[in-house]
Amino acid sequence: MAKKKDNVKIAKKAAKKISSLSIGGIILVVLVLIFLAIWFLYLEPRTVRDLEVRIDKYNISVDASQTITYKTIPETAAEYNEASFTSSNPEILSIDQTGKMTAHQVGKTDVTITVGKISNTYKITVFKLEPNDETNDDGFYIYIEEAKGTYYASANNKEGEDLRRELNSIMRENFTPRTYGDAREILGRADADLEDPTKVWTIYSGDKIDATWDGTSWTREHVWPRSRLGTETDKITNSTRNQASDLHNLRAIVQSVNSSRGNSYFDNPTTETTTYGAVTSTSWFPGDEHKGDVARILFYMDVMYNELSLVETAAELLTGETYQLSGAKMGLLPILLKWHREDPVDDFELQRNDIISQEQNNRNPFIDKPEYVHLIWEGKTIDELTKLRVKPIYYYKEEYTYVF
């Protein structure tokens, strides 16, 4: 009998031991699974969990281009995963593997970006505006509201100083200033001639020069002169990173033309001409091909940097000291406003804006949205600019096409 009881005790102990081992094993398995889950979700550097994609305009005009930018989440996954871009209808809109979309004909297409196992698809509408649809007879640009979630969406329905402040905030939100030295290579691409990208199209003279920087063939022009930027120093080096290195204000230029222009303000010529040159010892005419470009660069600088100001008269401009805040002025504003209407935005400016946006993470709004000039400096209202529509204009908003 005693022997039987001993056997029962031994059996119970063995069962308890097995049960204890089973629970421990289960706990171990659970811990391993939790660790693996954390590893794959949070630690595995090759796994793309999400994408942040920026498409500035979901509506593109025929023959226009735009580059999609993206960021992987986590960012560490980017180096292990190459992005691919596809268009569902490349005859309407094609896209290369840098993300550059080019519109060919009116219609709609789906554009898909894939990185790792993550794919996002966006609907793009290509439209065509007939002549005079963008402006009225006086050259005022028509106001178009931006789609929700796009670069200028927060500026919708703003005018005057409210619009100026909002654009300043938009341009500065992700701004990554590059050095003055960086501009040597970047301008070689941003200012590339549209027909021959191996050449830069230089400002004022329009010379086309080999785009590769060699230190002598072309140099860097400050459209808003360096001495009028209020930097409080006349020194600039290739490591300088301030308003004097802002890529939107820098243009490729022939060295001799750069020296001739100096720090002159802009003015109309005293005799009728379409070519560039000095007007007086302190003023300069950029030429008909460049005067709108110059105006929009100066508008950008005026809004981007609060210490700068555009003035209306030479008397205002020529007061104050160079390199000091008292002399941080440019103009002449009434003439720049006229040039903005007479020399509309062209494909060269669009190219520059796209490339510079990729490099320093902000855009020139007066190239993308030229109607903003009227709302900030000319006292126009959104209602006035909206009523200028004389023909249907198509634009894309939140995945629907509206006709006005």
Description of the molecule:
The structure is a single chain. By secondary structure, this protein is α+β, with helices and mostly antiparallel strands. Among the domains are: 50-127, Sandwich (Immunoglobulin-like), CATH 2.60.40.1080; 175-361, no CATH class. It has helices spanning 2-43, 160-173, 183-190, 255-261, 291-304, 314-317, 333-342, 347-360, 365-368, 371-377, 382-386, and strands at 50-54, 59-61, 65-67, 69-73, 84-87, 93-95, 100-103, 107-115, 118-127, 199-201, 208-210, 219-222, 250-253, 265-266, 277-278, 283-285, 309-310, 329-330, 394-397, 400-403. The strands form eight sheets. Strands 2-9-8-5 form a four-stranded mixed beta sheet, with no helix packed on it. Strands 3-7-6 form a three-stranded antiparallel beta sheet. The chain is globular.
Give the arrangement of secondary structure elements.
Layout: H1 2-43, E1 50-54, E2 59-61, E3 65-67, E4 69-73, E5 84-87, E6 93-95, E7 100-103, E8 107-115, E9 118-127, H2 160-173, H3 183-190, E10 199-201, E11 208-210, E12 219-222, E13 250-253, H4 255-261, E14 265-266, E15 277-278, E16 283-285, H5 291-304, E17 309-310, H6 314-317, E18 329-330, H7 333-342, H8 347-360, H9 365-368, H10 371-377, H11 382-386, E19 394-397, E20 400-403
Parallel strand pairs: 2-9, 14-16, 17-18
Antiparallel strand pairs: 1-4, 3-7, 5-8, 6-7, 8-9, 10-11, 12-13, 15-16, 19-20
Helix pairs in contact: 2-10, 3-8, 5-7
Short description:
This protein is an alpha+beta fold and 404 residues long.
Residue windows where pLDDT falls under 50 for at least 5 positions: 390-404
Q: The biggest beta sheet, please?
A: 4 strands, mixed
Q: Provide the spatial order of strands within the biggest beta sheet.
A: 2-9-8-5
State the share of residues found in helices, binned by percent: 25-40%
Rounded mean pLDDT score? 86
Distance between the termini: 101 Å
The structural class is alpha+beta
Enumerate how many helices there are, as a single number.
Answer: 11
General shape: globular
Q: What is the strand tally?
A: 20
- Strand content range: 15-25%
What is the rounded Rg? 29 Å
